[in-house]
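Q: Hi! First time doing this. I have a protein sequence and I read that you can turn it into a structure. Is that right? Here it is:
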Amino acid sequence: MSTGESTATERKSLSDVHGSVGVAHQNPLKRLFAFLGPAYLVSVGYMDPGNWATDLEGGARFGYALLWVLLMSNLMAVILQTLSARLGVVTGHDLAQACRAEYSRPINFALWALAEIAIAACDLAEVVGTVIALKLLFNLPLLLGCVVTALDTFLLLWLQKFGMRKMEAVILTLVVTIGGCFLIQILLAQPSPMALLGGFKPTLPPGSLVVAIGILGATVMPHNLYLHSALVQSRRIGSDRASKAQACKYNLIDSALALNVAFFVNAAILVLSAAVFHGRAEVASIEEASELLPKFLGSAAPILFGVALLCAGQSSTLTGTLAGQIIMEGYLDLKIAPWLRRLITRSLALIPAVLTILLVGEQATQQLLVLSQVVLSLQLAFAVIPLIHFTSNRRNMGEFATPWWGQSLAWASALVIVGLNARLVFDKIGEWVDQAAASGRVIGPLPLSWVVGGLLYGVALSAAGLLVWVTIKPLVKASHAWKPAPNTELDWSDALRPRRISRIGVALERGPGDSEILSRALSLAEPGKTVLTILHVVDTPMTRVYGSETADREAEADQKYLADIVEGLEQQGYQTRSILLYGPDRASRLIRQLKAEPVDLLVVGSHGHGLVRDLLFGQTVDKVRHGLTIPMLIARPGEDT
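A: Yes, that's right. Below is the predicted 3D structure, encoded as structure tokens:
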């Protein structure tokens, strides 16, 4: 049975920033500006380091002849990203949530696993691109560069504190920097305008098919489809038809502008390679291109090249992190700490990068980039085909369902993308099997080529079988209409209904912030009517051993502290009692106590440690908030009353 028949999306996509950007401006230009942004975050996936290798090779080997392939890829990307944005705006579901509503649990688990592999592959390309950039700019060894890239795990967490618009501004700055670096290099290279224009005429020089497939396969990224359907929901729009139509229109403009910027960057890489290397040098990797640039364009060229590559790696890292969060929450309805999610993803990318550099050498980084693109190609169809199904179905899209001509363009794009990506995947598998055969190695009684071929072709054919079911299931066994996403309009009748707070829990820390915590609680309590429960967790080395039987000085001092507070509150007319809890885990003890004896409201304190201190000392408030269903009031020392 489809999960959509019995349940629905309980959690809003990217709940931390959902509906956080207002768009209700009278001025049309201000309104348009408010909508611009999500597609720019998506666009960086179209210019990540994984694209550079194919663009460089295409320009060096075939000049400007494959520019039309980039243009065609960009047009396909605009179509698919527009559908992705419409899905999020109209249904309130991101692509992962839509899959969870439409497909059965086993199918969703398989789709989630493939999507996670794609995120890891994308992150692998970003790691490799960043470490190469660090080597080009600072002559940093690749292994040391891997250590540095591990630190940018927390960059997104820091940026998220400033809100969605600030994050979009940072990404846009990186994109502009990339474009500026290549613009300067193109001016230095002085490409032939007529030859450049000739590259938009569809032709395939001998031997260029595989490179053309690689360019197309590296352009449309599966994680971008998940990402875009969630990012558009950061805009606060109404649920009426006019609001959705307006949002769809402005998101189309956003996609067209942003993806054309991405097209310019990819075309600039290919044009630069064609103008500098075609007919002069063979270029098979990013590092080779950087080493040869000074010979043709002077000493400044490799610096500009390295800066652009570093910006591409960092911008892709940020958006890849968000995509990973969307995929996990959407498919599994599971939310984990953002830093842990980022650490897991980055570890999955760093481990193969470090092992390859250690075992094979630094020259193998280019092969890692190729591998990442093949993995992304294998997963792409599992995002594209459900997206087209969902946006074409009036059951969930209503009048916003894709018209027949739009469906024709989308399915044509899907057939081209899936077909060429399948060709790329099977060509690469055949190449790896041939390499295994050439090595002459055996594993037990079997040649290595048999083992490699059996494993890789088995995985590919299993994926093909899953794809067939994902394609036909909405046609032969459609699920019920998705349950609407949570209503974002305020229910005034419910909001104005009086709610009496008769029991308030007050979690004190025996510190300077307790006066603020208690003040917040007393502002909501009624003397003689509200029962105040004063809670405190004592956590000492002795409590870890003896628990509630602890009788050390700190426990006794805590007990007296609570007793004095109870006495003072009772003198003011408040009904009060105290409960002293014993560690070691403060959050767990509070959760256990409040589940046993619930209150109507819990007042707690938060110091706002910041990222590093929260990681070191923990976040009691967050743990308690996720462990309980009761409302919480969080007080911070020094905040205004």
